[in-house]
Amino acid sequence: MTTKLNLVVAACNDWGIGKDGQLPWRLKKDMEFFKKMTTQTDNPDKKNVVIMGRKTWNSIPEKFRPLPKRINIILSKTMSHAPTGAYLAGSLEEAISMVTDKGDLADKVEGVHIIGGSSVYKAAMESDFPCRIYLTRVLADFDCDTFLPQIDSNVFEKIDNCKEVPKGTVTENDIDFVFEVYDKIPGHNTIEEPNAA
């Protein structure tokens, strides 16, 4: 069975996802959705994997690391050893091989979730793996220095009526946001470069 990558990400109007290693917004309902998507499993004996880059790992407050009830894998070419409670991989492919039928974690894993940052999302979107993007689209402008690669409609199709995501516009702290889902169209593995202008 081919591993499916689930990207969980929030982006504002210009596809910005972060500033100085932090989220530019605080949206409790988005955080609740993130936690539910990345922790919930059909099999109570299995856990989901969250794959992230080193900067994303460092952006998580220390008391919350590793993210509980999930298998944490950090992608890094510079870290010499894995932090306590987490695993280390040199590439997305290596991380996925750790959790598929070839790896030590295979029988413990249900879903594979990509949680940032920009280069890890890009690697997942450009990979040959089936890919689903759970996007919290923040309908506002924020000053960002990190961006999600734009979702190319020739490569990804929007899925309407996905039961996993809340419907309609949500408002919190005077910020409107909506939950969207995109699936990679089989046979596509190229994306456009983001517009970080």
UniProtKB/TrEMBL annotation:
Record field: catalytic activity:
(6S)-5,6,7,8-tetrahydrofolate + NADP(+) = 7,8-dihydrofolate + NADPH + H(+)
Spell out the GO cellular component terms annotated for this protein, sorted alphabetically and separated by semicolons. Answer: mitochondrion
Q: Which UniProt keywords apply?
A: NADP, One-carbon metabolism, Oxidoreductase
Please state what class of enzyme this protein is: oxidoreductase
Protein's pathway: Cofactor biosynthesis; tetrahydrofolate biosynthesis; 5,6,7,8-tetrahydrofolate from 7,8-dihydrofolate: step 1/1
Q: Name one Pfam family in it.
A: DHFR_1
Q: Which Gene3D superfamilies match?
A: Dihydrofolate Reductase, subunit A
Task: State which Enzyme Commission number(s) the record gives.
Answer: 1.5.1.3
The similarity comment for this entry is:
Belongs to the dihydrofolate reductase family.
The molecule here is called: dihydrofolate reductase
Species this chain originates from: Magallana gigas
